[in-house]
């Protein structure tokens, strides 16, 4: 949807084709499908391409069966008016309008409240004079009303939910971020969202409070980038901001979004910045700051806890690209933020990828995965914006889904639980690496200097298969394909005599000696089913030169044994009886992360690369181990 000529052709073709098929569908059919389309527009180009459509249809069949998938496919076929395999926003709009008309016109069925709301488009001035394009949807009748604000880099015109918000008696305000679409300013992600160079979020809240329709209360909503804008806005502590509902967003752009363990999140930052047409300077800035420094502190809300004073709901998924960021944002604000925020946070963690509850289960599909109703956004905003006594403050602070064996309907797990806090009570339990490939509950009896060796060649990296990705296939996927590689080590338990629940943060503590001054340790935790399929449930990476500090890299001494901790983030999974627990250890996970050239320098396509001969020690003196938070039955 980048060329006006293409838009016109699509609209004309859709206008011709749509009446032939519109009578076959109801407005409700189209509305339900429309609600999930943005979740599968992975590159946010306002077009559903063939691969994105395939993933959407797979989700529908996984969750609702083949019949509903066929019905959805028929609607999508009808929307693809020019039969080019892609569905543009204009094609979809033309279909939707024709379906409404075929049902008797807009007067035959009550339209979405957003269609009849008093919509205004305003160029809102910021403190530095830049003006940001903002759509305002007003309810019918007389105000004043509270407002719900979303700020997005993906075009305010794509911001859904206006109808429901307006129907519930709130003003809906949707804004293009600085430099995006119709807004002025530099086209760099999040440059104006916080408290540093610009305070666009705070300036917008201040503008809302001055409007004659405002009652002085503002809530914010949004997911992913729209959640990041909320977290950064809270760091500016604007008066009038009283509640937030945050989907899949990290509190630090360094530690969760751009780098993990010092390794660059290659697929994410490259594909996201280029696919969304940010200024090329954005990607270069991220590459130019491989260590945590003042550049990243401006994008880290943990530095602003003393002023963050707003209640918030934090919704994330076990396979979401920002998973640990969602958890840590909740924990930090719940326990260390200012009065008003402290003790007033909520956390929801489901078995989802970045698409949330509507996302596909990939190789595993978990049952009953829809989020609990007690944590719905309408109730949250009704309480904080309108004073409705609906019990949201009395609900448990945490709701989390415990995953389990998806092949056995009687297996433990696959259920929602609530908790008073996070993490839930668990015992950190070591599972020791053994030279023969075992993963043992007792320290290995092997003599000193027992190790397992492998060689990492940067020219032949171990590929990414699923996991917590943004722009490539994500979720729990079978790792068998990589497990026979020569640069991959496997450590596996015997079949479990009883179920084992792991809920909380997973870490690996590995004794490493390398021939190079730098290397990576990549660790994946897998649930191995009785048929041998090995599904990744948690994973992490640690760049050796950042093993002690994210701010000051330290090279390895070649040949010297060093203990390195690999943070594998969190999970909640019951490994069923008869299953096995496995750790996969190697030195790459590509293209999820960039490659380590072994020189102590950042990767360069034209730079020097060295082979890295690595030894993992597994003896009583150097007990490399996986540390799992075990929950008692």
Notes on the protein architecture:
The longest helix is centred in the first third of the chain and has 19 residues, at 4-22. The chain has 16 helices and 25 strands. It folds into three domains: 4-102, Recoverin, domain 1, CATH 1.10.238; 113-419, Rossmann fold (3-Layer(aba) Sandwich); 427-631, Galactose-binding domain-like (Jelly Rolls). Helix 1 (4-22) packs parallel to helix 6 (89-102), helix 4 (50-64) packs antiparallel against helix 5 and helix 12 (266-275) runs antiparallel to helix 13 (280-288). The N and C termini lie far apart (53 Å). The radius of gyration is 25 Å and the shape is globular. The protein is 25% helix and 26% strand. Strands 3-4-6-5-7-8-11-12-13-14 form a ten-stranded mixed sheet, sandwiched between helices. Strand 12 (345-350), helix 16 (377-386) and strand 13 form a beta-alpha-beta unit. It has 633 residues and is of the alpha+beta class.
Task: List strands and helices in order, with pairings.
Layout: H1 4-22, H2 27-34, H3 37-40, E1 47-48, H4 50-64, H5 66-79, E2 87-88, H6 89-102, H7 113-116, E3 118-125, E4 131-138, E5 145-152, H8 162-167, E6 171-176, H9 200-209, E7 214-223, H10 225-236, E8 241-247, H11 253-258, E9 259-260, E10 263-264, H12 266-275, H13 280-288, H14 294-297, E11 312-317, H15 323-336, E12 345-350, H16 377-386, E13 398-402, E14 415-419, E15 427-433, E16 439-440, E17 451-456, E18 489-492, E19 500-514, E20 520-528, E21 534-543, E22 562-575, E23 580-586, E24 612-617, E25 625-631
Parallel strand pairs: 5-6, 5-7, 7-8, 8-11, 11-12, 12-13
Antiparallel strand pairs: 1-2, 3-4, 4-6, 9-10, 13-14, 15-16, 15-25, 17-24, 18-23, 19-22, 19-24, 19-25, 20-21, 20-23
Helix pairs in contact: 1-6, 4-5, 12-13
